[in-house]
Amino acid sequence: MLPLVSVLDPRSDHAITIALPADANTPHLQFDWFGGKTLRLTLAHRGMGGGRPSPLTLLLFAHAADYRAALRAYSDAFPSYFRPPLPRGPYEGTFYYHHIQDHPAPDEMARQSVRYVWSSSGLRTWASICRMVRSGNHTPTPSGGNWPRR
Fold first, then answer.
1. What pLDDT, in 10s, does the model give residues 81-104?
2. Among 4, 6, 2, which residue's Cα sits nearest to residue 62?
3. Spatial separation of the C-alpha atoms in residues 5 and 17, rounded to whole Å
4. Which residues pair with 148 in a beta bridge?
5. What is the DSSP letter of 112?
6. What gap in Å lies between CA 50 and CA 16, rounded to an integer?
7. pLDDT digits (tens, 9 = 90+) for 15-39
8. E strand or H helix at 79, and its extent?
């Protein structure tokens, strides 16, 4: 979620975006809109006090009344956040994982610009994939059965 809010006026094609920097530590940010006339910005849990400075940067962007213009202004202000400096490598792209008996359709793979196709083998079954901790709550049953808990 981006720390910003935009107020758009489509009739005049003008808008303003109020934002915090993309790299700011923002533990609590809240926007409230009252009756279409009042916009309240709430920042909480900032850790102020103890003789330490707590700088706050609030950004205002004027742009056309379109969410894409707001995102463009924000991404142009923080290019390192939106455009990583590392070059695209040979192993970056769309991957497709399928069962060995269910091959993907070539036209669908071309539509999605698939670069790599992985298939399961007899050593890795669906039950073993479901037991992987990274798949969510799919963990083996306490009795050591082959099927995940429900």
1. 887 766 666 666 666 676 666 667
2. 6
3. 6
4. 140
5. T
6. 35
7. 999 999 988 877 788 999 998 889 9
8. helix 79-82
